[in-house]
Amino acid sequence: MRRNRITFNKLLIGRIQVSFGFIGLISLLWYSVSSTSPSASTTNQRIIPIELIDQKQDSTNNHLPQKSQEKRFRDQRYTVVEGDTLEAIFKRKQLSINELYEIIEADEPYLELDVLQPGDQLIFRIEREDNRLEALSRIVDPSKTVTYQYNNDDFIYQEELTPTDKIAEVTRGQIDGSFYVSASSSGLTDNGVMTITQLLKSSLNFRRDLRAGDHFQVIMEQETVEGKTIGKDRLLAARVLSRGKEFGAYLHSDGSYYNAKGESLVPVLLRYPTKKKYRISSHFNPRRVHPVTGRVKPHNGVDFAMPTGTPILSTGHGRVTRVASHRYAGKYIDIDEFGPYSTRFLHLSKILVKKGQQVERGQVIALSGNTGRSTGPHLHYELHIKGRPVNPMTADIPMLKSIPNSEIKDFHLYVADMRDLMLSEEKVVYLDEQTTDKHKQETHQYNSAKSSKEPPVISSSAS
């Protein structure tokens, strides 16, 4: 009996222990689950879903390329010195010569990089890792920067233009020696003196007719950026007062110059740069596909197929501003004509003029050829108006004419305004309509001491 009771007690205690063990296990599991629950109050940590974590990581990675982009390139500014060439600069910077040739090819329609001058500013954007050129910029002047930007295995030409203000600057003086010396001493540029001489030479012999004490008055338009001139000037009006007569030149709205009566002073431009008319092998086309490279590249002129050695004529009176040889354009010439006009001749075999030389309309300046990259003997001829290429076969070119009757009244009012400005004491007048009213009304007084009497007032009937 006693043995049966002992056995029963052992079984009961065992069951109780198992029950407590099971209860303890359940409690442990409950505590573990409750401690990881979002509603647990024992932690301040916020549980973020996995998909949000992934999005956050993606967002962070999106910013990495932008930061690395800033550090990917370095900009280097270089000032051209005497004797520099673009090839020498590239070698000095250990840049690829192939990249140089690609840039020269992109520059062929513009020739902005062909003749570097001491003091020119170049900006190289270079990739840090492999020293690859990303872009090359040249600051042409404070109003214009050209850039050759790498894009899809090629360099693309781009322009950045800064708006300019325009002022009218008045120069007054009297003859003491030659007109050139007197005008230059008064502050006129060589280009301004040459323009006046060419415009008035048909009515005034500058060597024979001028006397000491004769007066001249000139109004030049200057472009400025932040109050500083940028080297771009244009003649608005000029007159020489000699023995009671006025010999004047006034710019009309059509871009040509006339005397006070409205009679044209601008020499006629030839339509063709040769005595004989040759077949046009390639027309003016800003979107032309280059026949050699197959790339879209502006054709800023007209090609005339002709035998090598054909005499090439200057199409107007002007001054030679550039004589050079280009890897692709070959031997070429730039000529600055009157007013807004300039011309360019490419692929020449022989050049017969020099930089700075004055040339006449119809003068032989070169012989045609096949230099540079060319598909055959021909002449590439360009006409530019205000620095922009136009179709020389269809553009309006200067012709000997008079101002139409419908415009003559406004022209006479313009002449009167120019004369009033010439006789005033004002030195500078703001012209740009975009300047402030204050600048429009503001003028700089001519404070220089007067060393001579006021020039005589010439009647409007004078020629």
Category from helices, strands and their pairing: alpha+beta
Extract low-pLDDT stretches: 33-64, 433-463
CATH architecture identity of the largest domain: Roll
Mean pLDDT: 82
Biggest sheet features: 10 strands, antiparallel
Would you kindly provide a written description of the structure presented here, covering whatever features stand out?
The protein is of the alpha+beta class. The protein has three domains: 72-161, Nuclear Transport Factor 2, Chain: A, CATH 3.10.450.350; 165-266 and 401-445, Roll (Nuclear Transport Factor 2, Chain: A), CATH 3.10.450; 280-390, Glucose Permease (Domain IIA) (Distorted Sandwich). Helix content is 25%, strand content 31%. The protein is built from eight helices and 22 strands. Strands 11, 12, 13, 14, 15, 16, 17, 18, 19 and 20 form a ten-stranded antiparallel sheet that branches. A seven-stranded antiparallel sheet has the order 10-9-8-7-6-21-22, sandwiched between helices. Strand 15 (330-336) and strand 16 form a beta hairpin. The N and C termini lie far apart (158 Å). Residues 33-64 and 433-463 have low confidence and may be disordered.
